[in-house]
Structures are given as structure tokens and as C-alpha cells.
Amino acid sequence: AADMGKDLEKVLISEDELQAKIKELAAQIDADYSGKDLLLVGVLKGAVMVVADLARSLHLPVQTDWMAVSSYGAGTKSSGVVRILKDLDTDITNRHVLIVEDIIDSGLTLSWLLDNLKSRNPASLEICTALRKPDAIKVPISVKYVGFDIPNEFVIGYGLDYAERYRNLPFIGTLAPHVYSG
Ligand code: PRP
Ligand code: MN
Ligand code: MG
């Protein structure tokens, strides 16, 4: 694992807990999409680890595709301004689509993405997220698969960054305040 030095405040969700939860979600998804042709849509960059682990835990044959959107830039607060940096390569018309995210914070990114993908007329559209912050939500979103509900703290690791760092931590941790308060 990466050396966190003094930047890590505490481990919120361990690697073992994360991996066990991903396997649980995969079992549900296997059951729910049995006999269907599923497309996983990972939201870059944060969802890379979740997609990689989830896809390998599924027994269903799935396709994967990626969208890159960004609403945070280098800060710690969601701006609500969503930009498409990379669109899907796949035509999702009549496809069963499962959006995979690392975290739902304000919900602004996903609410925008849901509208965008819905307009392309998929056969079905659901969401799987590793983490959700119930106290930070600004737009209600119905999410079918949730790993963990977590407190409203700035979290890093397992794909989640602070200013593009810490994504490669295999666990979810909180950042020591000195890192972002200067
Ligand atoms: C983060 C995270 C989610 C989104 C959640 O992505 O990965 O995609 O913010 O925030 P919201 O619910 O408040 O919209 P970010 O925009 O930081 O891009 P990244 O995945 O490349 O880090
Ligand atoms: Mn993201
Ligand atoms: Mg980010």
C-alpha cells in the first residue's frame, strides 16, 4: 500500500471490508441481471477501482465502458458544474446499463449523468456506488446498490482523490486536516 505518512487521519473502511462488500454487491447484481446482457459504465476517474473489483467478482459476462466527467476540479467541494471529458464509446440504446461510482456526495454528478444517459433510451438504468454520504446529498437519487453509507467527511482512497492524490490506497481513509487547511 502507498505510504500515507502523516496525511492519513484514520482508516474508515478497511481493505477487507471493502472487498467483502464488493463481493456482496456482485452476488446481488449476478442474481438481478441473470440472463441479461449488462453494460457497466464506470465514471472516471474515481470508479476505476470499484469497476475493476466488481467486474472480476461478477459471474455474469459483462461489457465495460467509461465516461469521464468532473465536478470537483482540484478542490474539496462539488461545484455542481459537470463537464463531459470523455463520452461512452458504446451505443446504449436498449442496453441494460449499470452506472458504477466510487461515491455519491451531493448527488449532483449522478443526477446530471442519469438525465444524460436516460435520454439515450437504455433498456434499464441503475446505479451502483461503493460509498454514499446521506448528510451531504442535495439531489435525491434512487440508488439500487450501495456499499457503505458514511459520515460527511472528506474521504480518500480506493479511487477517491484529494487533488489527484491517494487514489491508490486500498482502503478508505480520512485526510488529516493539515493537508487541506495548509
Ligand atoms: C467525485 C466522485 C464522484 C463525484 C461525487 O468525482 O468520484 O464522481 O465526485 O460528487 P457529487 O455527488 O457531489 O457530485 P470528481 O468530480 O472528483 O472526479 P474524479 O472521479 O476524477 O475524482
Ligand atoms: Mn468521480
Ligand atoms: Mg475527485
From TrEMBL:
Enzyme nomenclature, EC number: 2.4.2.8
Keywords assigned by UniProt, alphabetized: Cytoplasm, Glycosyltransferase, Magnesium, Metal-binding, Nucleotide-binding, Purine salvage, Transferase
Pathway note: Purine metabolism; GMP biosynthesis via salvage pathway; GMP from guanine: step 1/1; Purine metabolism; IMP biosynthesis via salvage pathway; IMP from hypoxanthine: step 1/1
Phosphoribosyltransferase domain segment(s): 16-162
Cell compartment(s), UniProt: Cytoplasm
Family matches, as Pfam families: Pribosyltran
Keyword Transferase: yes
Highest rank taxon of the organism: Bacteria
GO MF annotations, alphabetized: glycosyltransferase activity
Main location: cytoplasm
Cofactor dependency: Mg(2+)
Reaction catalysed by this enzyme: GMP + diphosphate = guanine + 5-phospho-alpha-D-ribose 1-diphosphate; IMP + diphosphate = hypoxanthine + 5-phospho-alpha-D-ribose 1-diphosphate
Family annotation (SUPFAM superfamilies): PRTase-like
Record-linked PANTHER family: HYPOXANTHINE PHOSPHORIBOSYLTRANSFERASE, HYPOXANTHINE-GUANINE PHOSPHORIBOSYLTRANSFERASE
Family label: Belongs to the purine/pyrimidine phosphoribosyltransferase family.
Protein name: Hypoxanthine phosphoribosyltransferase
Originating organism: Nonomuraea mangrovi
Lineage, opening ranks: Bacteria, Bacillati, Actinomycetota, Actinomycetes, Streptosporangiales
Gene: hpt
